[in-house]
Structure formats: structure tokens, C-alpha cells
Amino acid sequence: MTKAYILVLISYLLALAAAWVTLQFVAEYHIMIQVLIADVVATIIIFAFSVVYKNSSFYDAYWSVIPVVIVGYLMSLQGDAELIRQLMLALVILLWGFRLTANWAYTWSGLDHVDWRYVNLQAKAGILWWPLSFTGVHLLPTILVFLGCVPMYHALVIGSHPINGFDYLALAIGLISVWLEFQSDRELHRFRKIRSSSAEVLSTGLWSMCRHPNYLGEIGVWISVLLFGYAAVGYTDYWMLSGAVSMILLFTIVSIPMIEKKLTEDKPGYADYKAKSFSLIPLSKLR
């Protein structure tokens, strides 16, 4: 395990180094285009490790690491942004990134561990697996997370609006969302330790109010980022909205149906739990 963690760390350090070098060659572009190009280059480095070690789960922690790096980079730039707003947004992203990365490290069993979704996709894709892995497992999530980070440019670089109510709303939603993710992880790990069978269904605590409190928290974090961007400039445009909208669609249309299909197949009691519970928002008419 120690060797595996060191190997992943090396891959990420090389990816970040490649991203930094890339930034030196794209200085003529808009700041966020620079970030996107560097982000894609870093993703290619991680993909190379995935191919060499035949394990696309090399990418799994990238989702939670790169936004923290982007926050740090944008905060280092000279701009008109309010320092308090920068610190508020940075706090949300640091807590979110630490929680998600720590959860990955806790659940990862080493280089022999591959996400079950990748295993299923590889079985269906056959010889086309690695092109699919690059586009669907590595590049697409990188682009989605980048879109989610677009409002950071407004909040951390150009936004000169004084601190206002939307900042405090964004902070509250962000902190509550991170807590939702942390608490749902805690309850899930505790449940897995005490359950008598893997077929049992977790239906207590946060999981009694909705079936995916962790995904609800994830969506909330990206809405928080959007609100910080809006608070900083007083408007939203397509690019600012695209990230939060993309995340909502990703979880509601792709991730949740995929995980629920698997849980229904693996757990005899899940269909009953599903019929009696809400998917994301408690008290919603949409189950």
C-alpha cells in the first residue's frame, strides 16, 4: 500500500509539474484558457500512468485535487478580488478537497483496486477500452470539473463587488454541503463495519432522508462556487452556469441511475428502500 500511494503521489506531482511548464507557453491566452490547457496536459500525464499500470483508478483522486490547485493558482494572480471572499471560497474548496481525497485514500486498496464502473465499462468496450477510458474516465471529468471552477475566476481574480449576502449564502451552502459529504461517508463506513451481510441496506441517519446525501453535498459545493462567482460580479453567464448545471446533470442522469441499478441488483431490499425514500432532496415529489 505504501508503494502504491507513493506511486500515485509521484504521478500527481509529475502531472502538476507538466501543468506548470505548460502555463509558461500559453501566457498569451485568457487566464481560464491557460488553466484548461494545463489541466488537460496534467490529465494526459495521469492517463499515461493509468495505461502503464492498467488501472484507470489512477485518476480517481484528480477530481478532488485539481480544484484546490486551481484555487491556489488563481489566488496568486494580481486582481481586484476581495481578500475575504477569496478566503471564504478557499476554505470551502480546501475542506471539500481534503474530505474527498481522504475518503479516496481510506477506501482505496492499492494498485489492484479498480472502480467497479470502470470494470463494467471495460468489459463492454473490449479493445476500445483505452480510448474510452481517456475520453470518458479522464478527459470528460476534467472538463466538467473545470467548468465547475469557472466562477472561481470571477470570485478570486476579477470580482470587485463588496462582500454581500450572496457570499454568506455561498459560504453557508458550501460548509453545509461539505458536512453532508463528511457525515454521509462516516455513516457509510460505520455501517460497513457493523453490517452482517453486504446485502444489507443503509437506511438510517442521513441515508434515511435521501438515498444519496453524498451526491447532494457534492452538488451543493458546486452551487456554492457559482454563488461566490455571482456575488463577486453581480451577474451569471453561460460559462459560469455551465459547471453547476453539468454537475447536477452528471449526478442525476448518469451517476445516480448507474449506482442504483447496481444496488438494486446486489441488494434484495434496495427496491423497497428506494420506494420509500427520496433520491436527493427530502420532501421533494421526485423520488
What does this structure look like?
With 287 residues, the chain is an all-alpha fold. The chain has one domain (2-276). It contains 11 helices and no strands. It has helices spanning 2-25, 31-52, 62-75, 83-107, 116-125, 129-158, 165-194, 206-209, 213-233, 238-266, 270-276. The radius of gyration is 20 Å and the shape is globular. The model has no long low-confidence stretch (mean pLDDT 93).
Distance between the termini: 40 Å
In quaternary terms, these chains amount to: single chain
| Structure classification | mainly alpha
The number of E-state strands comes to: 0
**Helix amount:** over 70%
The best one-word shape is: globular
Rg from alpha-carbon coordinates: 20 Å
The percent range for strand residues is under 5%
Number of separate helices:
11
Whole-number count of domains:
1
Question: How would a textbook summarize the main sheet?
Answer: none
